Automatic annotation (TrEMBL):
Domain Phospholipid/glycerol acyltransferase: 29-141
One GO molecular-function entry: acyltransferase activity
Pathway: Lipid metabolism
Entry keyword set: Acyltransferase, Transferase
Residues forming coiled coils: none
Name of the protein in its database record: 1-acyl-sn-glycerol-3-phosphate acyltransferase
Length: 188
């Protein structure tokens, strides 16, 4: 029932989806960019409903505190403690290795502020769990959520991050400095 409501609101707001996560894909990391506004969350809920897959998400633990924490959890969220190094990458890899079907969305920018580089955990989770990354771009000027075909990380980290930056550079409305850095080979 909630998905029908999210789909209706997504379409009423004028958004559309271009691309799809293949129905046969059982596991993936869904990397969503940009993370620029609180509006990303409802747009993401609408896109997830249109995609029609159960996709959980990782969010900063502060979101999961009262009074609205219950809502973020009910909508598929898992809190993440970003204040310390807690080996989250390895923990998420183990979760993927123990399940037959799991899709987790996250914002590799890690914050709504402009960043110089992406956090790389999403990449190393995909590599460690041998699962693909699905790149999802929120194009605000065109009100389109673009979903790229899944790709598996290779042994060439620099080339992979350049490919990620190239894809996201085509999404309008992203003026993020990390894209320029990655395209110039300054990915680490």
């Amino acid at each position: 029932m909630l998905n029908k409501i999210f789909i209706m609101l997504f379409k009423l707001a004028g958004w559309k989806l271009e691309g799809q996560i293949p129905a046969s894909l059982k596991k993936s990391i869904v990397a969503v960019v940009p993370h620029a506004s609180w509006v990303d969350f409802p747009v993401g809920l609408g896109a997830r409903a249109v995609i029609g897959k159960k996709i959980g998400y990782l969010g900063k633990e502060e979101l999961f505190k009262p009074p609205f924490g219950w809502l973020f959890k009910a909508l598929g969220g898992t809190p993440v403690d970003r204040s310390r190094n807690n080996n989250l990458v390895e923990a998420v890899i183990q979760v993927f290795n123990k399940t037959t079907e799991l899709h987790i969305a996250l914002a590799p920018e890690g914050t709504r502020k402009n960043v110089e580089k992406l956090k790389s955990g999403f990449y190393y989770v995909a590599k460690g769990a041998n699962i693909p990354i699905v790149l999802v771009g929120f194009d605000y000027p065109r009100k389109t959520v673009f979903v790229r075909e899944p790709f598996y990380p290779t042994d060439n980290v620099e080339a992979d991050f350049k490919e990620i930056a190239t894809y996201f550079s085509q999404i309008q409305g992203i003026q993020k400095s990390w894209i320029k850095n990655y395209l110039e080979g300054k990915y680490l």
